[in-house]
Amino acid sequence: MTKEIVPAPSPLRREADLADLAGAAYAGFRLRTTLEIIGDGEAAGPIGLWSLLQLPHGGDLLVPTYGRTIPKVYFGAVRPEDLTVSDRLVRWRMRAEGEHKIGLRAASVTGRAGYLHPIGCGLWDLVVRSFSVDPSGEYVDVPASAPDDLGYAFQACNVASGPRPLQRRWSTTPRRSGKGPAGRGARTSRRSGLPGKRGGPSGRIARKLLGKED
Fold it and tell me: Coil, strand or helix: which one is 121?
C-alpha cells in the first residue's frame, strides 16, 4: 500500500461572492492511496479500500445527495431528532452518547461531505472531503446483520463511549479481486475561525460546497 499527500488549493479561491471571508483560515490536501495485491489475488477475495477521517465529537455531518435517501443504520439507536433528511441533503447531529453508524449508497451520494463543529468563542471549523464514487461499483462494506446488503460507498460513525469521543467518517472503493493495483483519491479542505451565526461565513461556505440548508 502506498499513500501520496500533496497540498490542495482552496476550492473557493475563484468565488467572487466569498472573497470577503476575512479571518477565516484554510488548509487543504489531496490524498491518493494505492493498494496492490501480490500473489494469488483471487484467493484473497474481494477487498474495499477505506479512506478514513476522524473528527471531534459534537458537530453536524452534512452529506449532499442526488435525491431524498434514508441512511442505513449499521448499529446503534440513532435518535430521530438527530437525523434530518431532505431532498438534497442528509444532516446528522453527532452529539449522542454511545456508538452509532450509518451508511449511504453509492447511487445517492455526490462525492462530497462536510463536518461543521464549534471550536469556542463563537467560532466554527468546517471540514469538507471530496471523494470519488462509482455508482456501478460493488461496495462490500456491509452491516454485520445484513452481509448481502451491498452498495454503501459512504459511512459515518458516532463514538462517544470512551475517554475521547470522536467522529469517524469514511468512503470506500468498489471491491477489487485479482492482481494489480487498486487506488482512490480524496481531497480534504478545512476552514477555521468561522463565525457561526446565521448568514455568517460558516453557513455561506457550507451552502456553497454542500448545499447546506438553514
Answer: coil
CB 38 within 8 A of CB 149: no
Domain range summary for the chain, segments of one domain joined by +: 22-210
Quote the CA–CA distance of 49 and 194 in Å, as a whole number: 33
What pLDDT, in 10s, does the model give residues 57-87? Answer: 899 999 999 999 999 999 999 999 999 999 9
- Other residues' Cβ atoms within 10 Å of the Cβ of residue 135: 14
Distance, CA of 133 to CA of 4 (rounded, Å):
19
CB 173 within 8 A of CB 138: no
**pTM exceeds 0.85, yes or no:** no
Residue 193 is placed in which grid cell?
Answer: 475561525
What are the φ/ψ torsions at residue 195 (nearest 5 degrees)? -60, 135
CA distance 164 to 108: 32
